[in-house]
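Sequence and structure are kept together here, with a separate record for every protein. An example record follows, reproduced without changes.
>
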Amino acid sequence: MASAGESSRDARGTDKGHSIDICFDFANDEGMETDEVFRRFGEHLRKQTALLR
């Protein structure tokens, strides 16, 4: 169960884990290298985290 300050659902009620899974599936289908996928994910995560501050 999520804590009061954290939600595992987005604004539409979709589990955020599904969104991440879809992104990694897309990257895999596109033949992206693992290091590139994680680099891009890290950049995206840092940008999104900065928006919450």
